[in-house]
Amino acid sequence: MQNVRRYADIIASLEGLMWLSLAWSISLSVHIGSTEPTLASLLVIGALVVFCWAHRPLRYLLRRYHIRKRRTDMWIHTLALPLLLAMFLHIMLEALLGSAWLPPKMLLFNILASAGWTTYVMTLLIKSVIHGFKAKPSKPIMPTALPLPLSTPNRNLVRLTIVRGITWTGFLLAIVVGVELLAFDLPVTAVVSVVISMGVLNIATWWRLGRPRAVTHLEYLLHLLADITGLTLLFYFSGGSTNPFITYYLVPVTIAAATLPWRHAWIIAACSMAGYTFLMFSYHPIPQLGHINSDSPLSLHILGMWLNFGLSAGLVTFFIYKMAHALRSRDQALSRTREAALRNEQVLAVATQAAGTAHELGTPLSTMAVLLKEMQADAPADSTLDQDINLLRQQVDVCKSRLQNLVSNADRRRMAEPEVLDAEVWLAGVVQRWLVLRPDVSHQFDVAEKRGRPWLAVDATLDQALTNLLNNAADANPEHIAIRLDWQSESVVIDIRDHGPGVAMSIADQLGETFISTKSKGMGIGLFLTHATINRFGGGVSLYNHPEGGTLTEVTLPRCAAPT
């Protein structure tokens, strides 16, 4: 990473020097009356551009984020700011000293650009020296985590900043051409002030993007409204609705429709339409931009342009928003599909490991059963040793039985289709079997008093999933566990509340998605398999911290029709 930053500084500095050499060669050509210096600079720059494009490693290096960021900073210091300041100073000096004492615009720009490039390079050198002192700590430190990638709204604002810089640079060049070559009667001071204001906004936006704060839809909306305001002011001083660039209003409308919610997109469309309507009646006229047969302020040509813009803005906002919404929905569906595939792979890995473990445990359990049988035969009848050995044999038999059930249930050819049962009867049976395993638990079982009966499609895996949730509640606090059954028209809800310490909010959203456990020695496999099983039935599991303390586990399952 440090090498990339160093390369970025060097490349940006050399590129700025290249543009400076081109600017000074133009001034030299004007001074001596020969194009040879300019042609020589263009030849060298063209050769460098071709070499950078042909050299694949260098071409890939120039695409790196930090290098593109450094180059953008260089363009601001060496090209954009000097160009704006040169025009502003030229206007001020012309107003104060007159045209007789006025230096050439190109020379003024070259001086400011050279100062900007020197300031930029000196800043990089100072940063490099400071970083060099900090890069050698006295003690080894842990490597810092890499910064997170930009979110989608942040990236959209980066793109908007780039588009704004390109657009207003183009407008500035168009203003220069209109004033110098076409002799447009423009209020130059007002127009340049608008361009400088938008340049300052762009620099402030670039600085804001370096802050570790997410971009909201409201902030993005305000940026687009600022662009519309700047466009309205620029068009007001440059011919209003007769300006051929008036349809640029469609650009912020399109950007809003593709990136913002429905309401925000229509706000941008309405503001653009309002700005266009205002410019039809109030603007600084430019004679060169007037239309033929424009005796009245509102000619048929301008009215047709206005109607065309309104129709285009409405269609763009509607269809592009719908297409962008469809693309976002598709991306979300693909993301859910990938998550489900990953979860299924994890479940398959756990199932494979469980099958292998069941096979490996069969032999030790059989050996233990044989040895216990021989030990019981040698032990005195009705003695304490005989009772202990008998208890051990029962536990070994239970383990063998569970392993056999695990293997038989893993075989999908032996598994029956889910059985539709009364939810209250099924849940009561699961709770009773759970109480046999956890006799230390005190609980309360409630059923909602509603008309009709809830029916569920269940099998043995769903029994085990609910048992896992009940065990988690008992592990948190075995006292006063509340179990409640409720249902709606299309779903059945099972609430399990314990009075334990609750769930940390930092891991609440991750429980069940990965192997994360709330227990000190837990592995998170039980809750993960529980989520996978209930999701397979079309349901879901949610964990909340109850306001009165403890954890509330909510299981939602689809309600089935009563069996015929």
What does this structure look like?
Helices cover 66% and strands 7% of the residues. With 564 residues, it is an alpha+beta fold. The strands form 2 sheets. A 5-stranded mixed beta sheet has the order 2-4-5-7-6, with helices on one face. Helix 1 runs antiparallel to helix 5 (105-134) and helix 14 crosses helix 16 (525-536). The chain starts with a helix and ends in a 6-residue tail after the last strand. Mean pLDDT is 76; it is low at 137-151.
What structural keywords apply?
564 residues, alpha+beta, five-stranded mixed β-sheet, 7 strands, elongated
Provide the low-confidence segments as ranges. 137-151
Report how far the terminal alpha carbons are from each other: 68 Å
Q: Categorize the overall geometry.
A: elongated
Number of strand elements = 7
Order of helices and strands: HHHHHHHHHHHHEHEEHEEHHEE
Give the arrangement of secondary structure elements.
Blueprint: H1 2-32, H2 36-54, H3 56-62, H4 65-97, H5 105-134, H6 152-180, H7 188-209, H8 217-236, H9 250-259, H10 262-281, H11 300-378, H12 384-410, E1 419-422, H13 423-437, E2 443-447, E3 455-458, H14 460-476, E4 481-487, E5 491-497, H15 505-508, H16 525-536, E6 540-545, E7 551-558
Parallel strand pairs: 2-4
Antiparallel strand pairs: 1-3, 4-5, 5-7, 6-7
Helix pairs in contact: 1-2, 1-4, 1-5, 4-5, 4-7, 6-7, 7-8, 8-10, 9-10, 9-11, 10-11, 11-12, 11-16, 14-16
